[in-house]
Amino acid sequence: MGQPEQRAEGAGPFTTRLTWHPPGGGTAVWESRLARRRGVLGVRPHGAAATRYISADAVAVARLRRLNVIAAIAFVIGGALFAAGAAVAQFGSGDATACASIYFAGGLFFSTGGYVSLLQVINAPRHVGGGEGRLVTHRWRWWRYEPMQVDWLSTFVLFAGTLVFAVDLLDSFLQGLNVQQVNRLIWVPDVIGCALFLLSGHLGFAEICHGRPCVRPHNLGWWIVAVNQLGSVLFMVSALAAYTRPATGSLVNADLANWGTLTGALCFSLAGLFQLGEHPSGS
C-alpha cells in the first residue's frame, strides 16, 4: 500500500508543516518547530474535536529538555551581560576595557546559546512520513549539514552571527586604532553580526508562520521569535549609531548606540526566559 498523500506548507524551498490522513482516519500534522522544541506531532482522530499529541521517545524528550534549558539560560545570561556593559558605558565609568570585558563575557554566552540551539535542531526527533505518524530518535550528533531545513538554517545563521560578534568583541580590546581601523575591525563585524541575527529571525518567522505573515499572540514560540527579532532590530540600530565619523572621530550617536544595545540585550534575555517554557511536556 502506498503512503498517504501529504500536503506540504512552508516558505520557498523549506517545508515547515506536513498534513496527511492516516490509514486509520483523521488528520495528522507535523510542524517543524513543535517537533524540535516540544518533540511532538499532532493527530486528530476522525470525528474528534481536539488534537492529541504523539510524543517522541524518552531519550529524545530528555535530550530536548536539557538542550533547551542550556540554550535558554545562556541567552538570559548573555543578554544580561550585554545590558550591563551598555549600562556601564551609558551611566557608569564608561571605561572602554571594562565595557569590552563585560561584552566579551556576554558574547561567550551568546555563542554557547547559538551552538546549543543548533544542536537542538541537529538532534531533534525526525518525522517518518505517512502511516499513523511518528517521530524517530537518531544517535547523538555534534554537527550535521542540512541547509534545506529552515530550522537548521535559522539556528546556523544565528550561531554564525554570534561568532562574527566575537570578532568585533575581541577587536574592541585593541589599543591605538585610528578611525578607519575602528570602523573596519569593530564596526563592520558588528553590522554583519546584526544582519545575521536579523536574517535568523526572519527565517524563524518563516518557520513558525509557514511562509506567511502572521501574528499569534497565544503561541509562545511566536513570542520568542518576535522578541528576539525586536532585539536584533535594536542591535542593528545600535550598530549603525556606533559608526565613527572619519571627519570628527566621534560616534554618530553614542547615546543611541548604548540604549540600542541595552534594550536589545534585554529583549534577548526576556526571550530566553520565555524559551524555558517551550519544552517537551514529557518527564
Automatic annotation (TrEMBL):
Keyword Transport: no
Source taxon at top rank: Bacteria
Keywords recorded for this protein, A-Z: Membrane, Transmembrane, Transmembrane helix
Transmembrane regions listed in the UniProt entry: 69-89, 101-122, 150-167, 187-208, 220-244, 256-276
Protein name: NADH-ubiquinone oxidoreductase
Lineage, broadest ranks: Bacteria, Bacillati, Actinomycetota, Actinomycetes, Kitasatosporales
